[in-house]
Design brief:
This protein starts with 10 loop residues before the first helix and ends with a strand. Strands 2-5-1-6-3-4 form a 6-stranded mixed sheet. The chain is globular. The chain is built from 5 helices and 6 strands; from the N terminus they run H-E-H-E-H-E-H-E-H-E-E. 33% of the residues lie in helices and 19% in strands. By secondary structure, it is α/β, with parallel strands linked by helices. Keywords: Isomerase.
Amino acid sequence: MLKKIPKILSPDLLYALMRMGHGDEIVLADANFPGHSLHERVIRCDGLGIPPLLDAILELLPLDPYADYQGAMMSVVPGDPVVPTIWDTYREIIARYDASAQLSFEDRFAFYERAKQAYAVVLTGEEALYGNIILKKGVI
């Protein structure tokens, strides 16, 4: 155990966050996300929802102020009646750490392609539909 490190962050996740460089991205994926088929570096956080994990990560991870968008979410597939209320939760958490942070929206398959280029995919137990989010690391 270490002081001041959120206990929800596993050693594997801390290691990935430390190894990421400026501009690298990390995917926080919901329970339905095809992480293992899209990426070789998958970190399992089964049973954890994304909001507490996002909060803990942002304690440590600076967002990229030089990018147009500091993160991205998967947009709703046209015709799907789902209204992802979890997006508001993500915006509230992110605003606590970076009030100027902007999030873009990617369609499902563009999000998958972007996830393939990310540093890592974190698979969670998040059950909210369209609960996936990508974060872009900045500098201190």
